[in-house]
């Protein structure tokens, strides 16, 4: 059974079951009927290893694995690293955004969701180009060749 490209599967992760059901319902209403929901990062990783998702939408503040840890797990896995990832939270601190950006978050959405913002973010994130693994050793040697003074510090 092939999945329709206009209805890509989405995985929603939120440890609050009522909010999880609400997000799944909202996604269905705006044209994404193929949505799975789980209440923990561990369950999310299990699902991600069983099925390819077009997007993960995860709450930031969860226990025991928070959304940032889940994001890092996904980005660290060669098979999953290109899975688009949106973090959600009722409020974001600058440090949260900075850490999530460094970890590879594709977007942030504040709760409660504004439908127009949700649609726009989904479209932008799902259509984003795949990531490429950086080669840190090669990058370091290139930098030291191009800028020999860097090796002195």
Automatic annotation (TrEMBL):
Q: Which residues carry this modification: 4-aspartylphosphate?
A: 59
Q: Which residues form the signal peptide?
A: none
Q: Which UniProt keywords apply?
A: Phosphoprotein, Transcription, Transcription regulation
Q: Where is the Response regulatory domain?
A: 9-126
Listed name of the protein: Response regulator
PANTHER family linked: RESPONSE REGULATORY DOMAIN-CONTAINING PROTEIN (PTHR44591:SF3), STRESS RESPONSE REGULATOR PROTEIN 1 (PTHR44591)
- Which Pfam families does the entry link to? Response_reg
């Amino acid at each position: 059974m092939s999945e329709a490209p206009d209805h890509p599967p989405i995985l929603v992760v939120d440890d609050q079951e009522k909010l999880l059901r609400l997000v799944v319902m909202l996604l269905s209403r705006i044209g994404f009927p193929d949505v799975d929901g789980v209440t923990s990062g561990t369950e999310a990783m299990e699902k991600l290893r069983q099925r390819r998702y077009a997007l993960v939408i995860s709450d930031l503040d969860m226990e025991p694995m928070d959304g940032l840890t889940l994001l890092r797990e996904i980005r660290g896995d060669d098979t999953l690293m290109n899975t688009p990832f949106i973090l959600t939270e009722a409020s974001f601190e600058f440090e949260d955004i900075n850490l999530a950006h460094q970890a590879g978050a594709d977007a942030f959405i504040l709760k409660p969701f504004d439908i127009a913002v949700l649609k726009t973010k989904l479209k932008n994130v799902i259509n984003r180009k795949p990531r490429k693994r950086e080669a840190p050793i090669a990058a370091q040697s290139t930098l030291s060749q191009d800028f020999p003074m860097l090796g002195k510090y």
